[in-house]
Amino acid sequence: MRSTPEGQALMELMWELAQTFFKMRAAGKSVTAPAATGEAIGVVTPSGAGVYGLLRSLAEEGPQTVPQIARARPVARQHIQQMANDLVAQGLIEFTNNPAHKRSRLLRMTPEGERLYAELSARMAELAERLAADMEIDDLKTTVETLGRLKRKLADEK
After folding, report:
1. Helix, coil or strand: residue 40
2. From CA 109, how far away is CA 111, in angstroms rounded?
3. Which of 3, 41, 61, 84 is deepest in the core (most CB within 10 A)?
4. Model pTM?
5. What gap in Å lies between CA 117 and CA 121, rounded to an integer?
6. What would the pLDDT profile of 86-137 be if each residue is shown by its tens digit?
7. Rg of the chain, C-alpha, whole Å
8. What pLDDT shows up at residue 142?
9. Which of 39, 43, 154 lies closest to 54 in space, CA to CA?
10. Contact by Cβ (8 Å): 108, 96
């Protein structure tokens, strides 16, 4: 098959995006590393780096079920369930009754989870400011728009 310039450019974008994702994930993990005082602000969970994302989902979208969060990612429901169990055990989120479904309970942040989310968000904002220091706002906005369109196209591909 002959590649169009657009198809070739998208292949390059996919490659850059994959490489950038892993570097961004590593940088994000550094946000929860122990502070200069030696005090760790992150959480200890076998579930890994998705903790901030789960807390952000709850902060941005409000209480949700485990299946709702898993579909939005998309990751296995079991992965989100294990992460939720870990965070419940640490007092960062809690299960509440779901008026729409008797068996699928809602997750919501506790005050301690909200505090941690606010602290992690502040550190993420500091990281974003450092990384954006010599970048053009129009380039960043175009990238966000392009990735959003690509995400929607991928959702339609199912």
Report:
1. coil
2. 7
3. 84
4. 0.78
5. 6
6. 999 999 999 998 888 778 899 999 999 999 889 888 988 998 999 999 999 9
7. 18
8. 96
9. 43
10. yes
Q: Helix or strand or coil: residue 91?
A: coil
Give the residues across from 64 on adjacent strands.
107
Phi, psi dihedral angles at 61 (to 5 degrees): -105, -10
Q: Which two tokens stand for residue 36?
A: 């200069």
Chain mean position to CA 122: 15
Instruction: Give percent helix, percent strand, percent coil of the chain, each to the nearest 5.
Output: 65, 5, 30
Which token pair is 98? 């779901």
- Contacts by 104-108, CB closer than 8 A, 24 or more apart: 104/65, 104/66, 104/67, 105/65, 106/63, 106/64, 106/65, 107/58, 107/63, 107/64, 107/65, 107/66, 107/69, 108/58, 108/62, 108/63
Burial class (CB in 10 A: 0-12, 13-18, 19+), 95: middle
List, in sequence order, every residue forming a beta bridge with 95; answer none if it has no partner.
Answer: 107
Judge contact between 86 and 45, C-beta under 8 A: yes
pLDDT at 40 over 80: no
